[in-house]
Amino acid sequence: MNKPTLPVLVLLLALFSMCGRPNTVSSTAGSTQKQTTQKRNLLYFDATANFKRFAYQDSIKYYLAKSKDAGVTDVIVDVKPITGEVLYPSKIAPVMNEWSGFTKPGGFDLLTVFIEEAHKLGMTVHASTNTFVAGHNYFDRGVVYNDPTKKHWQSLNYLPKGMTPITQIKTKYSAMTNPALPEVRQYELSVLKELITMYPKLDGIVLDRVRYDGIEADFSEASRKMFEQYIGQKVTNFPADIYTYSTTAKNKDGKPERVRGPLFNQWIEWRAKVIHDFIYEARAELKKINPNLIFGDYTGSWYPTYYEVGVNWASKEYDPSEKFDWASKNYKNFGYAEALDLYTTGSYYFEVEKKEAKNIDPNTVNRTEAGQDKGTDDWYTVEGSAEMAMKITKGKVPVYAGIYVEQYEDDREQFVKALKMCRAKSDGAMVFDIVHVINKGWWNELKRGLTE
């Protein structure tokens, strides 16, 4: 047999290098090719819920080993909670060294330990950042509270009582910012770029809260001017041309019904463009620093109402205007599934199988996530929402349906069934959060759900 020539050797070495990297996902941003799918079981490590627990290296090692044994392939480490503070030595964002009365002893870098120890176990590590949020309203803490130069970043919400800064809405715990503000976008990009540069061995990034607060946000004068520029005309009656509140009709939550104005659909379209453009810009900037980075995103699964937070996570090939009256013909142009290497969606429902949708009682169901309502369609189940996510992303990105552990209360078997359904109907499962698995002692159930 002849020996390979030098060019062939170079090619073989390159191919070997590509094959040897664990959990690599092929990038097809902007193309119509189907992604190479990597089966994954992802487990979230929330920043504040686990703040004290993971202030110690041996604790990180211990729980990574338990996670690996349970069938977890990927860990998502939350390093930027909703306060806007971070859990690594940033020179841009404020560093969180204390939470809930506990001060970290220090002595090691949390994310470095997670990366090193997880890699020893053959696991993949993603860092998660809460993007367009910069304060915790329950504690009056965070960037928009503590930095006077950033106070104007907070969302201005249009409520029945009038325009209200989000820091004054104490029923909301997240002090969301205005994603359309150029200074907000550039700041968040700078934080992400610093993070990727500081941790070159980090496998991936999973963006969270890349959205508006809700349908009520943002109605600042800055947003009005940018919207007017987008549509090429002045808005004569603002915000009435977007929507008003009925003085008589009530919605499912007993609140005044919104009455759409003539520019409502264009407003929805523009907000989707704001988020779409940030996603693509973030991808491009981060890939310049680390071309092998797995660029991921995390959203809610309730697509038919998720337009309320300004997000179109579908493929550009999916046209929601054919089915939904809130979508303009141009809305599909701002889908961003093609920009992602990984997408995880919260199938946050107690009901697992589609046939269980008949058991949903809209009067008692607990749905408080942004953009959720109290419907009884079968996509309000783990099975239905996972199927919908796979359908509308059109194979452009691997989809990992996720469950919220606390939602299953004491029903171990429903939890196991939900995990199995995520794996059956999508490319794997995402579990939020390890703190609930620990508190409930559901390690055996987690393993059953992820491996059986």
Automatic annotation (TrEMBL):
Alphabetized InterPro entries for the sequence: Divisome_Glycosyl_Hydrolase, DUF4985, GH, GHL10
Gene3D superfamilies: Glycosidases
Signal peptide span: 1-19
Protein name: Alpha amylase family protein
Domain DUF4985: 322-448
SUPFAM superfamilies associated with the record: (Trans)glycosidases (SSF51445)
Limits of the Glycosyl hydrolase-like domain: 56-296
Alphabetized UniProt keyword annotations: Signal
Transmembrane regions listed in the UniProt entry: none
Keyword Transcription regulation listed: no
Highest taxon in the source lineage: Bacteria
